[in-house]
Design goal:
- The protein has 266 residues and is an alpha/beta fold.
- It contains five helices and twelve strands.
- It folds into two domains: 73 residues, membrane protein fhac (Ubiquitin-like (UB roll), Roll), CATH 3.10.20.310; 138 residues, 3-Layer(aba) Sandwich (Rossmann fold).
- It is elongated, with a radius of gyration of 35 Å.
- About 2% of the residues have low confidence.
């Protein structure tokens, strides 16, 4: 019977053994470093979430559009609810959503932590640019949002937009779906950008019919401008109003909708 040959054990060369040892040491070092980092993380988390140093002690609300009484009410309400809670455990999103429901006129509500123990609340309110007359007056911002919480009494100098139907649900702080209102607001934007208009002002915009869209200067003159080419037509109006031969007090309306400007006398 043939005798099987014994296989010799193959040994790794010293070169490869050295590489193995280096890699093993690096792996051990990485593992030790990872464990240390994890321990440091746990200690830091325990310190942040359990330390009395980070317990809520103050709330600061910033907005120049709010009166001091309302600001005090917001601060007091939040402080009563969250006082002495760890600031890292407070759900800021919940606070932001709650304030948004309480103040539908707010375009954006930002709540953040100011270390070590304070909440900062920034309410960015929509600014009224005009009032819509629809049975009563409603403040409107530049995007067409109805601002139900805004007192219109101090806004008497803003232009009044007429001929717009504000729906019931829009009266609760929603954006108006009226295309004519969008045209009126676009016109108002162009009027503000036309420098010469600062000396005349706008008292009202009639948006009941888009094709006959018009606005009234503060001296009572009606300007019929239509639904398009606002900038170009306002440029024409500016040149006309600079003409010393134009007797503005004798004019009832100026119609810019056609190639030839029509002036209607009183």
């Amino acid at each position: 019977m043939r005798r099987q040959k014994a296989f010799k054990k193959i040994k790794l060369s010293s070169f490869f053994e050295g590489i193995r040892d280096i890699m093993l040491k690096k792996m051990i070092n990485v593992l030790v470093a990872a464990i240390l980092l994890f321990v440091v993380f746990l200690l830091a988390k325990a310190f942040l979430y359990r330390s009395d140093y980070f317990r809520l002690r103050a709330v600061e609300t910033k907005n120049s559009f709010l009166d001091q009484r309302t600001i005090f009410s917001i601060n007091n309400q939040l402080l009563t609810t969250y006082k002495n809670r760890n600031v890292f455990g407070i759900k800021l999103k919940n606070i932001s959503e709650s304030l948004q429901r309480s103040y539908p006129d707010a375009k954006e509500v930002v709540v953040r932590v100011v270390l070590p123990d304070k909440l900062a609340v920034d309410l960015k309110f929509r600014r009224p640019v005009a009032m819509v007359r629809n049975g009563k007056y409603y403040a409107i911002d530049e995007e067409g949002f109805v601002l139900p919480s805004v007192d219109v009494a101090p806004l008497k100098d803003l232009p009044v937009i007429e001929g717009i139907d504000i729906r019931y649900d829009e009266k609760k702080g929603k954006k108006s779906s009226s295309m004519n209102l969008r045209l009126a607001l676009e016109l108002l934007k162009n009027i503000k950008e036309a420098r010469f208009m600062a000396g005349y002002g706008v008292s009202a915009i009639n948006a009941s019919d888009a094709e006959s869209l018009s606005f009234y200067l503060r001296n009572g003159v009606e300007v019929r401008i239509g639904p398009e080419n606002f900038k170009e037509r306002l440029d024409i109006l500016g040149k006309m109003l600079k003409d010393p031969r134009l007797l503005i007090d004798k004019i009832k309306y100026i119609d810019l909708r056609f190639k030839d400007v029509i002036i209607g006398p009183k």
